[in-house]
Design goal:
By secondary structure, this protein is of the alpha/beta class. It is 43% helix and 25% strand.
């Protein structure tokens, strides 16, 4: 596959995130203005965090609707582990919480046009936080609802309770349940497997029905 210059730049920035321990990566669709990005950058400078950001508008990409984040912040693994060690009591985490809530208030309700199956469909933008514990274990948090500081602090409690995977696994998708006031985890790998199994059963049923309707040869 031949990548465009914009796609190559995005891939390089993601690689850069993996080598800089104090960096946070933002990928978005252009829904944040230059002034809003500047404010986010200034908040990072207060606590000496670096922000890598890429506007991916106009770049074709495939997403799994139910378990994908359209716009997201990704925290470097070393930075997240440092925040966890300090139980979230750090200027870095306070800055990150401000940035997440600020961005959510600016993005909430905004939509984008997704091209699929030969047509454009209007979809609501999902904002989230991506966090990695190690090369095998990571989580995608969908940010929604009122999104107060306490909800975000529970992200750290949630991550701190998770077991690390022995081998690589697709990131678990997490959403906040307001009734139980807890973050709920969805095993994306298992969900994809179940959907594939269900699809195969439907296809098998269709094939069997066609066989039954097929006239027998004399």
């Amino acid at each position: 596959m031949i990548l465009s210059k914009k796609q190559k730049d995005i891939m390089e920035e993601k690689e850069d995130l993996n080598t800089k321990e104090n960096k946070i990566y933002l990928e978005y669709l252009g829904e944040l203005t230059d002034l809003e990005i500047k404010l986010i950058q200034d908040q990072h400078l207060i606590v000496s965090l670096g922000l890598v950001f890429r506007n991916k508008s106009g770049v074709p990409y495939a997403i799994l609707d139910d378990y994908s984040l359209v716009t997201y912040f990704a925290i470097h693994q070393a930075l997240m582990l440092d925040i966890l060690r300090n139980a979230g009591m750090s200027a870095s985490w306070d800055a990150i919480k401000f940035i997440l809530r600020y961005s959510w208030n600016r993005i909430r309700g905004k939509k984008y046009n997704k091209y699929q199956g030969g047509k454009f469909t209007e979809k609501e933008i999902k904002l989230g936080l991506k966090s990695q514990l190690d090369k095998n274990t990571s989580f995608n948090f969908e940010l929604s609802g009122n999104l107060d500081s306490n909800d975000l602090n529970k992200v750290l409690d949630f991550i701190g309770r998770q077991k690390r995977n022995d081998s690589y696994k697709m990131p678990d998708y997490c959403f906040y349940d307001e009734k139980s006031e807890k973050w709920i985890k969805i095993d994306v790998t298992d969900e994809i497997r179940k959907k594939a199994k269900k699809k195969n059963k439907v296809l098998e049923k269709i094939i069997n029905e066609k066989k039954k309707k097929k006239p027998k040869k004399n």
